[in-house]
Each structure stands twice: as C-alpha cells, then as structure tokens.
C-alpha cells in the first residue's frame, strides 16, 4: 500500500515545466471506449482488464481542439478486496463506493492521430459510474510538444453498439509553437486506427491495488499481452507448469496408501453384499 500511495502522490503532484507558459484549461471531453477486454487475474483474485478510450477535448481559451487517447489497465475490485484510497478530486477524504482503479498512459494527438505528447493516466472508477481521472504531460524537454496536468470526471453510457465517454477536465496545459502548427495543419483530417496510435507506447499491468485475501493469495497474475503486444489477440493463459519438479517419496507413499485403502474398502463392501445375498 505504501508503494501505491507513493505512485498516486507522484502522479497527483503538480509539475512545472520550462517550456511555454502553462495556461488555465477547462474543456469538455467526449468520445468512445475503443477497446475493452479481460487481460488476467490479480493475485487477490481481482479481474484485470485493458481499456482503450478514444476521446476529443474541446477548444479552451487559446488552445485548439485536441484528441486524447488512453491505454490503461483496470483492476476491478470485489467487496473484500476494495482498498482504502484518497479521492483523487477531494484528497482530504477517502474514496467511497470505489469499484476499480485504472493506470496507464495517455497520448495527446492532432486530428490525424499524430502524437503530440505522451503522459501518465490514473483514475478511480466508482460504482455509480462517476470516474475521477488525473493526467500529467511531461513537457517538450522530453521531445513532446505539450506539458501540464489536467483532471476531472468522466462517465460511460451505452449508445447503440458503442460505449460513450463524456465529462469535463480542468487544470493547466501548454502547447509548443510547433505543436500548435501541427494541430492546425491537420485539423479535420481522418484519424489513423487507434491500434496504430497506442502501439507507440508500452503499457504493462500495474502493481496490485486491491487488498489481498487469505483464500486467494496463490492465484497467479496471467496476462495475454503487455508492452508492445497490445495489438495482439488475447491468448488464453496456460496453467502453471509442474514439469521439472520431482515427486517426493512421501507423496508417492501417501498416494499408494490412499489407493490401497480404497481397494480394501471396496473389497469389504463387496463381500458384505455377497453374504447378505446368500443368506
């Protein structure tokens, strides 16, 4: 739990950048869940999913419309594994009614899907479908054209064959001059497939967030994909192999004894029935 809180505080902490000045940011977000699939099982038995969201951020102040792609893993909590975490958007109180935790990466792109900046994404999923998210972009000093931090809530709603994403994010954001030119030059262009966009980042399952339970500590974490394998179809996890482990003499003796006891019991039962039939 200590490492978890350290990671959350690191993601929440505000970072100042030496690039262009950060501007106040407030924008509506809308889009769809582009992908959602079971990835594995955590050591405490919580299912682990990969979730990909394809969304658009409305213009805000002098900042143009941007596209936000999220590739994250979501751990879905059970009642007995739900941890005690601070509410991301109200840090002085605990997160109640918590149903899951998401952690991964975000990609800020132009309309064509060309990446402007990459950052971190953490979110809390609540049972009432109000999800709190915090996103941090690390700045042009790493070769990217955006910097800052935004946060807010988003909801999911079924719309036909799609799951719609709606919400609002606020915070501070900056774009370099070259990033602004790129966004304007590619405005209105058709976006490349989201699979090609997220293939530029490596996203791996986060450390277990839920509380371990005594009855499920031995459950292994299996994932059918990670890192650059995000485009690959999910593979059924194989059962842990026991080959190469020698069978002890005690185990053999116990098995032989069990078999012998079963045979003796069956013989006595058969003789008893035979005697009852002859009398």
Can you tell me about this structure?
- By secondary structure, the protein is α+β, with helices and mostly antiparallel strands.
- It has a domain at 17-205.
- 20% of the residues lie in helices and 39% in strands.
- It is built from four helices and ten strands; from the N terminus they run αββββββββββααα.
- It has helices spanning 2-12, 177-185, 194-198, 249-278, and strands spanning 23-41, 47-57, 66-76, 86-87, 90-94, 98-109, 115-126, 131-138, 146-159, 162-175.
- The strands form two sheets. An eight-stranded antiparallel beta barrel has the order 1-2-3-6-7-8-9-10.
- The longest helix is centred in the last third of the chain and has 30 residues, at 249-278.
- It starts with a helix and ends with a helix.
Strand order of the largest sheet: 1-2-3-6-7-8-9-10
How far apart lie the N and C ends? Answer: 72 Å
Number of helices: 4
Which band does the percent of strand residues land in? 35-45%
Using only C-alpha atoms, the radius of gyration works out to 26 Å
Largest sheet properties: 8 strands, antiparallel, barrel
Mean pLDDT: 77
Structural class, by secondary structure, is alpha+beta
How many individual β-strands? Answer: 10
Shape: globular
- What is the helical fraction, as a range of percent? 10-25%
Residue runs with pLDDT of under 50 for 5 or more positions: 1-19, 216-254
N-to-C order of helices and strands: HEEEEEEEEEEHHH
Summary tags:
two-stranded antiparallel ribbon, 279 residues, single chain, alpha+beta, eight-stranded antiparallel beta barrel
Summarize the structure.
By secondary structure, the protein is an alpha+beta fold. It has 4 helices and 10 strands, in the order H-E-E-E-E-E-E-E-E-E-E-H-H-H.
